[in-house]
Structure formats: structure tokens, C-alpha cells
Amino acid sequence: MQFSCRDLAPLLPTESRITYTQGYFPQVMKSLDSLLSGINDETAEAIKNQPDNFIALLVYGGDKIKEENPNLMKDIQSFLQGLAIEGAEKLRVIDPSKKDESNRGTFAKPHILLLQYGSNKLWAFILWFQTFMFQIEGRKTAFSAIRFDIDVHSWFITDIMGQFVEDDPHMMSMALEAIKQTLYMNTKFRNHVDGCLAKIEKPRPINDRVRDALSTFELWSMNIMNKAKQEQVVWQLFAKPIAGDGLEYTEWLYIIKGQHYFIDTALEIKLAKIKSAKPYDSCAFCKCKTHTSEDCPYPKVEDWKGPIQKEVMAAHEAVRTEVST
Hints:
Layout: H1 32-36, H2 41-49, E1 54-59, H3 65-68, H4 72-81, E2 92-94, E3 111-116, H5 120-129, E4 131-136, E5 139-147, E6 156-161, H6 169-185, H7 187-198, H8 206-214, E7 218-225, E8 231-238, H9 246-257, E9 261-263, E10 267-271, H10 309-324
Helix pairs in contact: 7-8, 7-9
């Protein structure tokens, strides 16, 4: 699992006119297609042609947040310009036109703003720190800065369930080794890894390439609230993608999820191979696929200044009730 602020820090702001939450957060990784999925085709095409001219700002609280805070773009722009970094005064925050302007599923929809202009120093800090939370006159705002990058794909592969799945490091180590051994011997996986890496590196033995790909595989144990509203332990499988494009990434997931894995030839490692098999609903607040809304780590951070998922949902429910009556 990757976290923000993990590399060497760039130039840090000497001050900020607006106080913001300090901390390390799970690194938000979104593919180019997922970031552009809700933006109208003309703007999306322009971003694809010049991705380095923009940064995506994923605003927490869903598309509805714009209605609740008409000053959203102004607040974010004021906050970023308040960072004492050269070029901050030149930046611009844009709300691009969306493909679907209806109010259906306004909380579930990810809301993407665009950051344009500024300076290289400013962009380096924003992308490094990534997730910001602040308040202006009681208006709570939180967002993550994400680069538009065609080569970025999620490290998360799938959830693992089963009667033996518990927070047991020894059992997790055995399961991970079983997964890696199965994939190492699988012809489809070996050929896929060899084909992808052959496009970007000098010739070398296929065994070396497969071992390197498997060296990035990790298992994490998570306590989640499942769909039956009961606590459950799941394991989550992560690995660094080797794909060069979306099709290769889809094949990568398909091959890994399509195998049968066993511990000591008897205990089957059950992967959630399709979305409906996932034991929990992904977070509607931060749009992360690896935890539930109840387990979202952001509002639990000490000194959190952004919106709180329960409060946002309660406000939405109150509006719906008022409209229906």
C-alpha cells in the first residue's frame, strides 16, 4: 500500500494563509480513463492531448458538494494561492463541463476539478502532499491532487475471503507464497509479463522478468464492515502493474483473478473475481475501492478539517426528505 509524502520532499511552503490538516494518507491513484469518465468529451480529449497542462483535483463529498458550497472553486483557489510558493498567484481552478449534468447519484459521482497554470515548484508540492483539508468561514473542503498519466494503474487487485482469512501474519505469508508460486508456473501470466516488459526494457530471461513482477506482490489484512453490516476480516492483494495501457492492465487483472490458488493443496484462496462478489460496498466518500464508507480513514485523522462523510450524507438525506414532503 502506497502513501502520500513518501518520496523526497520538494520545496515546502514557508507559510500558509489558511491552516490545513497535516498527515500521511493512502496515496490516491486513478487511471486516466477513470479521472476523465465524467468530463465531457471535448474537454477530456483536450486533456488527453496535453495531460501535463492540468492536474486533477478529486473533491471529497461527491458532485453534490458544489451545490452545498457555491464558493468551492474560489475556496480551493484561495487556499492554494495562500501557499507561500512561487507561482501560486498564477494558478486557476476550473470546473469542467460534465457528461451528465443531472442530479442522479450526485453523492456517488466523483467530482473532478482542474488545476491549470501555477509553477513547477507549486505543482511538485501539491502532487507530493496530495491530500488537503481546510476550512474557510466554516465551509469544509477536502481534495486530492492527481496527475493525469496514461501509465498509472491501481496497485489493488482484489479482495480475498475464506474461513481461514484472519489477521494472521503466518497464514498471510503462506497465502502470498501460494499465489506467487501459482502465477510463476502459469504460462499465460509468464507470457503476459514477458510481452509487456519486452516493450520497455532490454532483452533478458523470462524467469527474471516474472520474478521481478512477483516481487511487488503484497497482502494486507483489513477489518471491514461487510454488506450485512457485520465486521469481517478480508485480505487485499496488491502488486505494481506492468501494463503499458488499459488493455494490458485489464488482461493483467483477468489472468491473476482467473487462477485457482491453494494453501497446502487443500485450502482454497477465494478471490473476489467479480464486483458482485466483493464482500463490502466501496467508499462512496473518497471513491476508494479498498474500504467502506464507515471505514474511510480521512475523517478519522486527528485535526481533520474536511467534510465528514456522516454529516454530508445526513445533509443530503434531509434535503431529499424536505423535497419529498
